[in-house]
From TrEMBL:
InterPro entries listed in its UniProt record: BUG, Bug_dom1
UniProt keyword Cytoplasm, yes or no: no
Lineage: Bacteria, Pseudomonadati, Pseudomonadota, Gammaproteobacteria, Thiotrichales
Tree of life domain: Bacteria
Assigned protein family: Belongs to the UPF0065 (bug) family.
Endpoints of the signal sequence: 1-29
Annotated keywords: Signal
The name this protein goes by in its record: Tricarboxylate transporter
Length: 364
C-alpha cells in the first residue's frame, strides 16, 4: 500500500491462515526517496557561511538518503533569517521533502524574543548540529598598524556590514565594543557573504566570517594580501573555557586580544554575556531540522544519513578544507547541541537586551 506523500512506505502484510501457522501479520515500513527532490532552505543569501555549509553537505546527503534524491539548496534571505525560518514553520510540509538549515543568526532573535520570530525551536526535529568558528579581519594597511599595536587604531572609524545587532553579528559587535573599537555597523545586509562583498569593494574596513566562508572566500583575499585575520572568537573546550580555534590555531582569540589591549583578562557582565551568546551561537552554530509532525521513520532516516556522511573515512579531510575542524553531531548529541544553542540564562538575556537598547536603540 502506498501513501501519497513523498516517502514511499511499503507496508507488506502477509496473512497466513490460522490453520497452517496461526494468525499473524508482518509490517515493515520502508523510506524510499528515489526520484524526489529535497529542498534545503537556507534563510540567508548565497556566499555566506551557512550557504557554504549547506552546499558542502547537500551532495553528500543525497548519496546517503535512500533512493539518492536530489538535494537542492534554496536561499530564502530576509529579516535576518527570520523570514525563511518563519516560512519553514508555517508552510513546510512534514513529508520530509523540506529541511531547514539555521545558524546563530536564527537562534539569537529567538533567544531574545524578537517580535519578528514566529517559530519555536521546540517544534522542530534536529538531525545534524555543526560547531563552527568565526574570524575577524582587516585590510592590509590597518592590519599592519594593528600588528604593531592594536591601540594605534582605536580611533579609526570602522564600517561593518551587518545583518543586525540581534543576529550572530552580536558577537563581533559586543567584542569590538569591549575592546574600544569605533565600529559603525551598516545594518540590513541579508547574509555574511554580503558583508564580505562590502569589504572587498572598500565599503567596509572590518569584517568577520564564519569558518566555512572564511576558508573558501576570504583565504584567497588573505593570499593576495587584501585581508589579514586579527582574531577568532575561539572554541569551547571540555571544561567550558575559551581556547584557540582548532581550525586557526595560529590566530589569537578575542579573549587573548582583549587581555593584550586591556592588560587584564575579560570579566564582568559584558564578558559573561559575550561568552553565553558565543556558546549559544558557535559550538551549536548550524543545525538541520525537519518540521513539526514529521514521522519518526523520516527523522531516523535523515539522522542515519548524516551519521553515514560524517562517518566516512575521508570526511574529516573533506570537512577540514570546506568547514574547518569542528564536531558534527547527530542523534542524541545533536539534541544536546540544540539545547545548548537555544537556551540562555534570563539574567544574561536581560543584560544583552539593555545593551542593545542603549547601544543601538533596539527594543525587544
Amino acid at each position: 500500500m502506498q501513501k501519497p506523500n513523498f516517502v514511499r512506505r511499503t507496508l507488506l502484510k502477509a496473512i497466513v491462515s490460522a490453520m497452517a501457522l496461526g494468525s499473524a501479520s508482518v509490517a515493515m515500513a520502508e523510506v524510499n526517496m528515489a526520484g524526489k527532490t529535497v529542498d534545503w532552505v537556507i534563510p540567508f543569501s548565497e556566499g555566506g557561511g551557512s550557504d557554504k555549509w549547506a552546499r558542502f553537505y547537500a551532495p553528500l546527503l543525497s548519496e546517503q538518503l535512500p533512493g539518492k534524491p536530489n538535494v537542492v539548496v534554496k536561499n530564502m534571505p530576509g529579516a535576518g533569517s527570520t523570514k525563511g525560518a518563519n516560512w519553514f514553520a508555517s508552510r513546510a510540509k512534514n513529508d520530509g521533502l523540506t529541511i531547514l538549515g539555521t545558524s546563530g543568526s536564527t537562534q539569537f532573535p529567538y533567544l531574545l524574543g524578537d517580535k519578528r520570530v514566529k517559530f519555536d525551536y521546540a517544534d522542530w526535529n534536529v538531525v545534524l548540529a555543526s560547531a563552527t568558528g568565526g574570524v575577524a579581519y582587516l585590510p592590509a594597511d590597518l592590519a599592519a598598524k594593528w600588528k604593531q599595536d592594536p591601540k594605534s587604531i582605536m580611533d579609526t572609524n570602522f564600517v561593518f556590514g551587518s545583518q543586525g545587532a540581534t543576529r550572530l553579528d552580536l558577537i563581533p559587535l559586543l567584542a569590538w565594543t569591549m575592546l574600544g573599537l569605533k565600529v559603525d555597523p551598516v545594518f540590513g545586509i541579508k547574509g555574511r557573504g554580503d558583508g564580505r562583498l562590502m569589504f572587498e569593494r572598500g565599503e567596509a574596513n572590518i569584517d568577520y566570517q564564519t569558518s566555512g566562508a572564511f576558508l573558501s572566500k576570504v583565504m584567497p583575499l588573505v593570499k593576495e594580501g587584501k585581508a589579514v585575520p586579527i582574531m577568532t572568537w575561539g572554541a569551547l573546550d571540555a571544561n567550558g573555557e575559551i581556547v584557540r580555534d582548532p581550525t586557526f590555531p595560529d590566530i589569537p582569540t578575542f579573549k587573548e586580544v582583549y587581555t593584550q589591549v586591556k592588560g587584564e583578562a575579560p570579566s564582568g557582565e559584558a564578558w559573561d554575556a559575550w561568552k553565553a551568546f558565543f556558546v549559544a551561537g558557535f559550538p551549536a552554530q548550524k543545525m538541520v531540522f525537519l518540521p513539526k509532525g514529521t514521522d519518526q521513520e523520516i527523522i531516523d532516516t535523515y539522522s542515519n544519513a548524516f551519521k553515514a556522511v560524517t562517518s566516512q573515512p575521508d570526511f574529516p579531510e573533506k570537512a577540514k578544507k570546506r568547514l574547518g575542524v569542528y564536531e558534527q553531531a547527530t542523534g542524541a548529541k545533536a539534541d544536546a547541541f540544540k539545547k545548548l544553542g537555544t537556551e540562555v540564562a534570563p539574567n544574561t538575556k536581560a543584560w544583552i537586551k539593555k545593551w542593545l537598547k542603549d547601544r543601538y536603540g533596539v527594543n525587544l
